[in-house]
Amino acid sequence: MQIKREQKMNAYKRRKINMKKIKKVNSYTASLLSICKDKSVLSIGCVGMGNLNEINRQINAGTHQLYNLHKICNEVVGLDINEKGVDFLKEKNLNVYKYDVFKDTLPIIENKKWDILLLSHVIEHVPDIYKFVKTIIEKFKFKKIIIAVPSAYTFGAILNIVYGYEDIDASHCYMFTPASFVILMKSLGIKKKSLMIDKTLNLKYKEIKNKFLRKPIILLLNLIETNLFANCGNIIYVGVYEK
Question: Which of 1-15, 23-37, 76-90 has the highest mean pLDDT?
Answer without folding.
Answer: 76-90
